[in-house]
Amino acid sequence: MKTQAVRIIKFDAGHRVVNHESKCRTLHGHEYKAEIYCEADKLDELGRIIDFGVIKQKIGAWIDEHWDHNMILWAQDPNLIHIQKCDGLKKPYIVPFNPTAENLASYLLEQGNYLLRNDTVTITKIKLWETSNCFVEVSLV
């Protein structure tokens, strides 16, 4: 039997997909929903994979600080310098890839496991909803 603990974290962010063939090439925003799937070889002494609050505290806090109510932009976006000049409270979060849902989900999987730094718990899958009817899924296997 395989057991997973899943925490959902919602956030609002904007991005643009450079060279997109349609309207997603312009700056726009989404109400994202990240499903974070955690697994462990065995349950802890209380019978859990991980306390849901730990996922919120570590990954949720990181999302809140860096992505929530922010622009997520590619470092090689030809319009980056102009976008960065826009007035805002947060500086855009710059990523080393075109910020598609697939790339953001992969990045969150990697970043999430780094943030947990846990020998017994691993984030094995991220399901990232970009809209209420569109999502991507990335997993370690």
Notable features of this structure?
141 residues; alpha/beta; 3 helices; 35% strand; Tetrahydropterin Synthase, Chain A; 6-stranded mixed sheet; 26% helix
- Specify the structural class: alpha/beta
Query: Can you say what the CATH homologous superfamily is?
Result: 6-pyruvoyl tetrahydropterin synthase/QueD
Strand order of the largest sheet: 4-3-1-2-5-6
Using the CA coordinates, give the radius of gyration.
Answer: 16 Å
**Known CATH architecture:** 2-Layer Sandwich
Task: Outline the low-pLDDT stretches.
Answer: none
Q: Write down the secondary-structure element order.
A: EEHEHEHEE
Outline the structure in words.
The chain is of the alpha/beta class and 141 residues long. The chain has one domain (5-139): Tetrahydropterin Synthase, Chain A (2-Layer Sandwich). It contains 3 helices and 6 strands; from the N terminus they run ββαβαβαββ. It has a 6-stranded mixed β-sheet with strand order 4-3-1-2-5-6. Helix 1 (52-66) packs across helix 3 (101-116). It is elongated, with a radius of gyration of 16 Å. The model has no long low-confidence stretch (mean pLDDT 93).
Ordered list of secondary-structure elements with their pairings:
Blueprint: E1 5-15, E2 28-40, H1 52-66, E3 70-74, H2 80-84, E4 93-95, H3 101-116, E5 121-131, E6 134-139
Parallel strand pairs: 1-3, 3-4
Antiparallel strand pairs: 1-2, 2-5, 5-6
Quick overview of this protein structure:
The chain has 3 helices and 6 strands.
